[in-house]
Amino acid sequence: MVIKRALQIAGILLGAMVARQWSSGGWGGQAVWMGGVTGHTASTGNSLFLALGALIGLLLATVVAGPVADRLTRGINQLVLLPAPDLVAGTAGGMLGLAAGALAYPFVSGIPRYGELLATMLTVTLVYAGAKIAWHKKEELAGLFARRTDAQANEAEEPRFEEHKILDTSVIIDGRIADICKTGFIEGTLVIPEFVLEELQHIADSSDLLKRNRGRRGLDILNKIQKELDVKVLIYEDPNDDGGEVDGRLVKLAKALRGKVVTNDFNLNKVCELQGVPVLNINDLANAVKPVVLPGEEIVVHVIKDGKEHGQGVAYLDDGTMIVVENGRDFIGSTMEVLVTSVLQTSAGRMIFAKPKMLEKAL
Question: How many CB atoms lie within 10 A of CB 164?
Answer without folding.
Answer: 19
